[in-house]
Design a protein that fits this description.
274 residues, 7-stranded parallel sheet, 3-stranded antiparallel sheet, 31% helix
Length: 274
């Protein structure tokens, strides 16, 4: 039977030479993963608000974040009126009312459903990335809630455009084919031809500047990226898998389910059965 105790023991076995500040938790399924990550994020919001009076949080979007977001909304006693909200990325040339717009995604699925309403919500407009960068740099970012793409990207920092030493805060990037195919596969666009080729994204250094990172990665389709991150590029981050840099963060927790962990032998559920 799969257990949290098991996942913690295996984590120590795999990452015994990695930073103690990079943690992995493996849950049985995407629903329990979302609940666990929501609890983690809610506690972090509560503690930072108690200490500092407010918190600045970056949110991710996409199909993989839905269970997490639903669980977070249901979590009680979160002081949303002390939360300043940002998000990771947005397509270039896509109307903010398009069903695939990340601004609309967060507005409808998260921000409009929070009670009390957030202290502030900052939407990323691709034509105004300098303004957004200034807002981000105005004060420290306490928490980034992110995911990993099928190609190993974080935000829209794909293998072809990721830069671990990027001097920019927000930039316009060309999306790679695998990234765009993922958007079609998730049902956001009817075809590759209708999927935007460019997007505005927070850069990797900006994401890594957050004091704490919660990285939510469910589903079998993410297993290859997780394997690249935790096995192929273990302790040796490489832009071929941009998410591999998270191993070097000072306080990052990676939340997986059995499916996304399935290609890391020591973390797969089959390894826990006698």
């Amino acid at each position: 039977m799969f257990s949290q105790d098991f996942s913690e023991k295996i984590f120590e076995k795999i990452f015994k030479m990695s930073s103690k500040d990079f943690k992995v938790q493996v849950l049985p399924d995407s629903k329990s993963l979302g609940e666990k990550a929501a609890q983690f994020v809610a506690r972090k919001i509560q503690s930072v608000v108690k200490e500092k009076g407010k918190i600045r949080v970056i949110f991710a979007t996409g199909a993989s974040q839905l269970n997490f977001i639903e669980s977070l909304i249901r979590t009680k006693d979160v002081p949303w009126n002390k939360v300043e909200c940002f998000h990771l990325d947005e397509y270039v040339g896509l109307d903010s009312n398009h069903e695939a717009s990340f601004r609309l995604y967060l507005k409808k699925r998260l921000f409009e459903r929070l009670s009390p309403p957030p202290l502030a919500i900052h939407y990323l407009e691709p034509s105004q990335i300098e303004t957004y960068a200034s807002l981000l740099k105005k004060e420290e970012i306490h928490l980034a809630c992110i995911g990993i793409g099928e190609n190993g990207h974080i935000a829209f920092n794909d293998p072809g455009n990721a830069d671990f030493k990027d001097s920019e805060t927000v930039k316009i990037v060309q999306l790679d084919r695998k990234c765009r195919e993922q958007q079609v596969g998730e049902g956001w666009f009817e075809s590759l031809a209708k999927t935007p080729k460019k997007a505005a994204t927070l850069t990797i250094p900006q994401i890594m500047s957050a004091h704490t990172i919660s990285c939510v990665v469910p589903d079998k389709r993410k297993a290859w990226a997780v394997q690249q991150m935790l096995v192929k590029f273990k302790e040796k981050p490489n832009t071929d898998c941009p998410a591999s840099i998270l191993q070097k963060h000072r306080d990052c927790t990676l939340f997986l389910d059995e499916n996304s962990a399935s290609l890391v032998p020591e973390l797969s559920s089959s390894s826990s059965r006698e």
